[in-house]
Each structure stands twice: as structure tokens, then as C-alpha cells.
Design brief:
The protein is built from six helices and 13 strands. With 237 residues, it is α/β, with parallel strands linked by helices. It has one domain: Spore Coat Polysaccharide Biosynthesis Protein SpsA, Chain A (Alpha-Beta Complex). The strands form three sheets. The protein has a nine-stranded mixed β-sheet. Strands 5-11 form a two-stranded antiparallel ribbon. Helix 1 runs antiparallel to helix 6. The longest helix has 13 residues.
Length: 237
């Protein structure tokens, strides 16, 4: 089973309860999830694993802190997940399996978005695997955000290649260092594995947190109430 690794920080650690609630409800209860954080979250994490990285000294030490975990991480692939979100769709395990079988045959595979992604925004794309009504495409070598930290499947060796000291998550994503590196960076077209609604932006709570980023899914009213109660419990709202 592909592991999902979710880095977090002390400020956002309890948002993960809403994240877990919505992921479990979306057929993700059997997923192998590991949280990388500092203080342990204040809720029952169930089957989710937690690895403490020590003291939270700020986002500027993001890469320094996760290096210690990834030095010993030997799985060929993993999913990078986001902490400050709720899952707004059924987790598409069937498509994930198709993706994994596809990338195993691509020697230069580096990363693939698992969310709905506007291909034109990332420099255009060309289809490499067609499934009829949807396909997997490769973005251009000069495209922006080749190292995006949105929900993605990574080849571990490619992730480690760019895991250098002293960079924040924002610095990680906006680097131009991965342009023209020869790696195949992929995205889904007309399909997705996971849909997420962001809870926070720039440290501020977002009112439309229950809607996915690109509008393709939204939590139902019952789940919205449940998640709001989770946020109130942790004084997020």
C-alpha cells in the first residue's frame, strides 16, 4: 500500500481531526497515513501514525525537520498529503491504482498531481496514457510549480533530490531548480484521486473551506456541521 505522508505544524495539528474525519468517510479509512509534526494532535488518531520531529521552530525549517524522516524512508513511492484541508470527494482508489501501474513504466517519473489540475496553468501538457474519458498527461519541462506540494504521488528518490536544507514550503514550491531536469511531472485530465477544500490560507480561516479548490465537490450539510464542531472544539473557529 502506498503511504500518505502529511507534514504539519503545531498551529495546524488539530485541523487534522477534520482532515481524518473526511478522509475516513471518503473511503480512505484503510489508507496508511503518517503525520510528521511536533506536538502530538489532541484527538484520537486511530490507525494514523504520528512521528514527532522535535520542536516547532517555524516554517523556515520545514526541510531541515523532515530530512530526518526521509533519510530512513525507503519506499519507492509515497503520497504527499496536505494538513490544512478537508477531503470533499470519494477517494478514487481505482484511479490511484491505474496511476501507480502507469508510472512504474516511466523510468524518469518524478511526481504526479492527484487533485484536479488546470493543465494550461502549469505550462500545457501532452497525453501519455489514455483511459477513454480521462487521461494522464505530462507537463512541459519549463512549466511552473513542477515541485508543487499539493496532494501528489512522488517517486521518493525524486523528492529526496530536492530535499535540501533551509527552505520553507513556499520556497520549495516556487523554486525553478526543477525546470528542464528531465523528470516526467504528470497530472490527471478529466479525473482526480482526491479533492480538497483548504481550511487556512496565510494563517487565516477560509469561509469556503467545505468546497474544493476547483469547485468539483463539496461536503454535505451533515458533514459540514460535524466538521464545524471539530473546529470549535479545537478553537479553530
Amino acid at each position: 500500500m502506498i503511504k500518505i505522508i502529511i507534514p504539519t505544524c503545531d498551529k495546524y495539528r488539530n485541523i487534522l481531526e477534520a482532515n481524518k474525519y473526511t478522509l475516513d468517510k471518503s473511503d480512505g479509512a484503510a489508507l496508511d497515513v503518517t503525520v510528521l509534526g511536533y506536538k502530538k494532535p489532541d484527538f484520537d488518531m486511530g490507525s494514523w501514525k504520528f512521528v514527532s520531529l522535535g520542536n516547532d521552530t517555524g516554517p523556515q525549517n520545514f526541510s531541515n525537520d523532515i530530512i530526518s524522516f526521509f533519510q530512513d524512508f525507503t519506499d519507492e513511492y509515497f503520497i504527499y498529503g496536505n494538513d490544512d484541508c478537508v477531503i470533499t470527494n470519494k477517494f478514487n482508489n481505482d484511479f490511484l491504482i491505474e496511476i501507480i501501474e502507469t508510472v512504474k513504466k516511466i523510468p524518469n517519473f518524478g511526481r504526479m498531481w492527484l487533485t484536479k489540475t488546470p493543465s494550461a496553468f502549469y505550462g500545457g501538457s501532452s497525453a501519455i496514457k489514455n483511459f477513454g474519458t480521462y487521461h494522464i498527461a505530462e507537463i512541459n519541462q519549463w512549466a511552473e510549480y513542477r515541485l508543487s506540494l499539493q496532494y501528489s504521488l512522488w517517486k521518493t528518490s525524486y523528492f529526496k533530490k530536492y530535499l535540501i536544507p533551509d527552505i520553507s514550503p513556499w520556497q520549495w514550491e516556487t523554486r525553478d531548480i526543477a525546470k528542464y531536469d528531465g523528470a516526467a511531472i504528470l497530472l490527471p485530465v478529466n479525473n482526480f484521486v482526491v479533492s480538497a477544500g483548504h481550511v487556512m490560507k496565510g494563517g487565516n480561516f477560509l469561509n469556503n473551506w467545505h468546497k474544493s479548490i476547483y469547485g468539483e465537490a463539496e461536503l454535505n450539510s451533515e458533514d459540514i456541521v460535524t466538521v464545524e464542531n471539530i473546529f470549535k472544539k479545537h478553537k479553530i473557529i
